[in-house]
Design a protein that fits this description.
30% of the residues lie in helices and 32% in strands. The chain is of the alpha+beta class. A five-stranded mixed β-sheet has the order 1-2-3-4-5, sandwiched between helices. The radius of gyration is 14 Å and the shape is globular. The two termini are 20 Å apart. The model has no long low-confidence stretch (mean pLDDT 88).
Length: 111
């Protein structure tokens, strides 16, 4: 999905694996510096959660670099966690296969 602010394209939201009973991988990129820190990413994540819930998915997860504090904050603000148990299978597989450098983490939210 294209993310726009004041009529201008500023980023993308990707939802992968949307299907009833599944876990969806969400990807977010806010490329325009002027759009950062304005809640655009947070609102896009909320929209992604609403879309996946309507599709009867059971959860949504995202992977990111641990050092990406802005992304971590946006996901935490809308209820994502790295502490819930058990770790969803798609997130566990991603954590297992990602390269160790740079440090990466997965966050998820049950719907």
């Amino acid at each position: 999905y294209a993310i726009c602010l004041e009529g201008q394209f500023v980023g993308t939201l990707k939802l992968e694996g949307v299907q009833p009973g599944g876990w969806v991988n969400v990807g977010l990129m806010i490329g325009e510096i002027r759009a950062r820190g304005r809640g655009v990413g947070t609102r896009a994540i909320l929209l992604g959660c609403a879309i996946t819930k309507r599709a009867h998915c059971i959860g949504i997860w995202a992977g990111m670099r641990e050092a990406n504090l802005a992304s971590r904050r946006a996901f935490f603000l809308v209820g994502f966690s790295a502490q819930d148990n058990p770790v969803p299978a798609p997130a566990a597989e991603a954590l297992r296969t990602w390269p160790r450098r740079p440090a990466r983490m997965a966050l998820w939210r049950a719907l």
